[in-house]
Design goal:
3-stranded mixed sheet; binds iron/sulfur cluster; alpha+beta; two-stranded antiparallel ribbon; disordered N terminus; Alpha-Beta Plaits; single chain
């Protein structure tokens, strides 16, 4: 775990703020030089799992596997004031993705136009090297297609239709902000500049493009 602006100290740094990401269309945040990323605001997440349901529906993810999980801690404190912390587990769209470098067929790749890490099922032989190499444990073999699968920021579904990712649109608390990290004026870039954020396991050199605004209640050990 590393911090983008200053060291994240568990127990500090939770700030509530308002964003309007879900109301904006994808066309409004696209400019030349796109490198898509996401901010997940732990302080806004209420664990409703609407994002998980929307992802499954839009991307036709079968039961038994998932591209996106919201993990809840055990209670922090005691009833009636117990609190929970939530953690999004999904592809981090690493700029230096080990899942790509180990793939023997080129099926696992980073899209040059968007920076999104994706899988070409036509080239995937199901060897599972990428699943073993991913330090975030977010890949799986699709039970029907028998090829590797994971979150691709809805690249072939919502993004292709000019919409924001399904999880972003569905979140009732605007905990998710999606956009172009290479545009210094984008909402996501301004958010990362303004807030204390961290990236999971960035010490591995994977350069994840998933940023997190830390909650003040405890810490999840991955
Ligand atoms: S989180 Fe895992 S699957 Fe996603 S780009 Fe990084 S290494 Fe690959
Ligand atoms: S399972 Fe598919 S995507 Fe993963 S390493 Fe093997 S061929 Fe590449
Ligand atoms: S929809 Fe938003 S608030 Fe609900 S679990 Fe997902 S990120 Fe958290």
């Amino acid at each position: 775990m590393s911090c983008s602006r200053r060291h994240f100290i568990a127990g500090m740094g939770a700030v509530i703020f308002m964003t309007g990401s879900a109301q904006r269309s994808l066309a409004q945040i696209q400019i030349n030089g796109i490198r898509y990323g996401m901010v997940y605001d732990e302080t806004r997440c209420i664990g409703c799992t609407a994002c998980m349901d929307a992802c499954r529906e839009v991307n036709k993810v079968p039961e038994g596997v998932s591209r996106l999980k919201i993990i809840r801690t055990g209670p922090i404190g005691e009833f009636p004031t117990a609190k929970y912390r939530f953690y999004r587990q999904s592809c981090q769209h690493c700029d230096n993705p080990p899942c790509v470098s180990v793939c023997p067929t080129g099926a696992s790749y980073k899209d040059a136009a968007t920076g999104i890490v994706d899988v070409n099922p036509e080239r995937c032989v199901g060897c599972q090297y990428c699943i073993a190499a991913c330090p975030y444990r977010v890949r799986f073999i699709h039970p029907v297609k028998k090829t590797a699968d994971k979150c691709n920021f809805c690249r072939d579904t919502n993004l292709a239709q000019g919409k924001l990712p399904a999880c972003v649109i569905s979140c009732p608390t605007k905990a998710l902000t999606f956009g172009n990290l290479d545009d210094p004026n984008s909402e996501i870039s301004r958010l990362i500049a303004d807030k204390t954020t961290y990236r999971a396991k960035a010490y591995l050199g994977t350069e994840p493009k998933m940023y997190r605004i830390p909650d003040q209640h405890g810490e999840i050990k991955e």
